[in-house]
Amino acid sequence: MGALGWIILTSVAMSLVALVGALALLLKESTLHRIILPLVALSAGSLLGGAFLIMIPAALNGYDNDQTVFLWVLAGFITFLLLEQLLHWHHCHQSYGECKQPLTYLILIGDGLHNFIGGLAVAGIFLMDIHLGLVAWAAAVAHEVPQELGDFGVLIHGGWSKKKALLFNMLSALTYMLGGIMAYLFSFKFNLEFLVPFAAGNFIYIGASDLVPKVNKHLAIKENLINTMVFILGVWLILGSRLIIGS
After folding, report:
1. Is the pLDDT of residue 91 over 50?
2. What pTM, to 2 d.p., does this model score?
3. CA distances from 193 to 103, 171, 198 (A)
4. Closest CA to 195 of 142, 130, 117, 113
C-alpha cells in the first residue's frame, strides 16, 4: 500500500479515536479521575519520545544544514504556541483577569485546527517514510485518547447531548484527514520534508507545555512517581515501536 493509502487509513482510524470520549460515560467518576493523569503522562512521553528519538534524527539525516532542521522545529513549536494563545484570547475578558473555561464551540474549533495541522504534518512524514509515519501516528494517537476523554466531558458538562457530542467530536476529528489529503496533493508541487521537524516542534510543545504541567503538580510522592514511570513507559513504547516497525 502506498503513502496515500496509509494516510487515508490512519486518518480514518484517528477519526474513530474520537469515539473513545464515550468511555467517560461508562466509567465511574472516581475511576476516570484515577486513570486520566497516567494517560496524560503516557501521552506526554509518547509525544516527546517521538519528537526527540524519531522525528528530529530523521530530519537531520534529510538536511545538509542542521540549523534548518531546528528552525523548523521552532516554527512548529511557535505555531502551536500562537494557536493556543489565539484560542485563549477569544475567551478571556481581559489581559490581567481570570479566564473563563473555554466554551464548547471553542473546544471543537481548537481541536479541529489541532487535528488539521497534525494531519498535515503526519502525512508529510508518511510521504517521506511510511515506517516513520506509523510511529508518528502512534504517538499522535496516544495524545488523542486523554484529550478526547477530556473534550467529551466538557461538551457534556456544557449541556450537549451524548449523540451531539459524539457527532461533532467526529466532525472535528475529520479535519485530520483533510490535512493529510492536502499534504499529499501539495507534495506534487512542493518539497514537504520540512513537515518532519515541524511536526516534532508541534509534539514538543504539546508534550512539554500542555501535558507535563498537568501531571507534575501533585504533592503526593506516590502519584508523582507513578506518573513519571508512565511517562518513561510512553517514551519506551515509541522507541520500541520504531525498532519493530522499522525492522
Report:
1. no
2. 0.73
3. 36, 28, 9
4. 117
